[in-house]
Amino acid sequence: YHFNKWCKDGSWEKVWTTILKKYKQYLDMSCVNLDGSHTRAFRGGDAVGYQGRKKYNSTNMLYLIDNQGVILFCSDPISGNHNDLYEVGEQFDKIIQMAKESEIDLSYLFLNADAGFDDSAFRKYLEGLYIEANIDFNKRNGSISDRDVFFDEELYKKRSRCEHSFAWMDGFKGLLVRYETLASTWLSMNLMGMAHIFLRKIKQHI
After folding, report:
1. What is the C-alpha R_g of the chain?
2. Reported pTM
3. Dihedral angle at the C-alpha atoms of 193, 81, 182, 36, nearest 10 degrees?
4. Residue among 59, 34, 60, 66 nearest 44 (CA)
5. pLDDT in tens, 10-63
6. CA atoms within 13 A on the CB side of 200
7. Rounded distance between C-alpha atoms, residue 127 and residue 2, angstroms
8. Helix, strand or coil for residue 10?
9. Contacts by 139-147, CB closer than 8 A, 24 or more apart
10. Are 116 and 138 in contact (CB under 8 A)?
11. Do residues 36 and 27 touch, judged by C-beta distance below 8 A?
């Protein structure tokens, strides 16, 4: 009862942003990385859809990750039949709100993202937030040589931190496969996993 209550009233999000606010000195914000991750959903429920490429029902979420692999913020759960750019402005607004609650300023940070986020509207959106977008080029968007956009390949290599983060999250059996039908419960469980990973890392410095 209490767990469900805390999921619905935003208590887990409050716990997470409070932890970030108190221990943000342990973050590496030299650059951040944005990526989406699909989770197989066996029981259906909120924000679940068939992912054709993976050939199963899934839920997608966007994660913003620091340069050492700590997941900072996440979007709301998104139906798996949508790509990473689906309502990306609204989903990134969620990330911005969590950053404000954590008193973490994302302005002027370098943000790495794969070619799935190569969209002129999203680039302009990030520019409006004073975030430096280092997004890989999607060749389906036309000739690269004609585009007046800079891409730093060396900086982009930092995006490998995302794979570490998702592997750590998959280490929790409750997050490897989604069985929860409520989106609020699934979001809260992700926040609990994020907190556990960060607190474990902090313990190494204390």
Report:
1. 17
2. 0.94
3. 20
4. 59
5. 999 999 999 999 999 999 999 999 999 999 998 999 999 999 888 899 999 999
6. 11
7. 41
8. coil
9. 139/115
10. yes
11. no
